[in-house]
Amino acid sequence: MKRRLASAVRGFVSFAWNDRLSGVAALVLVSLLLLSLIGPYLPLGDPEGIGAGPRLAPPSLEFPLGTDELGRSYLPRLIRGISATFLLATTAVMVTAIIGGVTGMLSAYKGGFFDGLVVRIADIFFAFPIVLTGLLVTAIVGPGTLSVLAVIASATLPMFIRLVRSVTLGIAARGFVTAAEVAGASTTRVLIVHLLPNIMGATVIQLTYAISIGMLIEGVLSFLGIGVQPPHASLGSLLRQGVLYLTVAPWMVFSSGFLLTLAILSINLLGDGLRDAIDPLRDRALR
Question: What pLDDT score was predicted for residue 68?
């Protein structure tokens, strides 16, 4: 186990060194993750401390990112917003990756009626716009984190189903899978031993893109007021709050918008680098 972990770390360091842009993106992403984890324990002030300073005060030594309309220090609220956005997007995407991966593999391997049913359900999910889905979910369960999780899941689940199904269809026709079936291997063994290791690369790449999509969905829903609700904070809700005071406190919009853009861009660049590392001939064939 230790050898595998050490090998994985060396492989990631080598990948980051060879692909400098992806390495910078990974460094930025890790920094944001660490900040979201240790931020609440840093002596930056209480994010809910109403009246900690003057209302809408500009950035200063005491308040590095200024204060909001209630006199709360904006820096600890921004750190809490990063944590909430990462947590919501990652939680929803990890769940849909597992469900979508298993469903996609079974659909491609079994085929028949079950495959057709899964494909039609995925098409139905794709047919609904994200904002419309958010409004529908909000009308049923109300605004809040549960609505955000449900909308992210509904948007990313068909992505994993389609991707895993497509990759599995190509692998299931290979000779080693046929040999395993002839040898009497069970469906579970074929899926876990022969198919799963061969789709992990594509799934990990899709996972990075799905997390960036989840963060964008959280930002949109919270900006519209149907996502994370006060007094809790996310990057989307902070951006919505800052727009109300754009002319008198522009730092509120710029800081939250910049961090959301930086996080999404870093994840996408890291995903591009992973794609090129896993399938290096993909782009070379076009040259």
Answer: 85
Please indicate, yes or no, if residue 48 is contained in any of the structural domains.
Answer: no
**pLDDT at res. 279:** 59
For residue 97, what pLDDT is reported?
92
* Spatial distance between the Cα atoms of 222 and 235, rounded to a whole number of angstroms: 8
Amino acid present at 234: S
CA–CA gap between residue 236 and residue 221 (Å, rounded): 7
Does residue 155 sit within a domain? yes
**Angle 196-224/74-110 helices, nearest 10 degrees?**
140
Phi, psi of 285 (to 5 degrees): -65, -20
Low-confidence residues of the chain, pLDDT below 70?
A: 1-19, 51, 278-287
Stated pTM of the model = 0.83
Instruction: Find the CATH number of the domain harbouring 101.
Output: 1.10.3720.10
**Total domain count, the chain:** 1
Tell me the three state secondary structure of residue 73.
Answer: strand
- Residue numbers of the domain that contains 156: 20-39+71-278
- pLDDT score, position 15: 53
Half-sphere exposure of 89 (CA within 13 A, CB side): 30
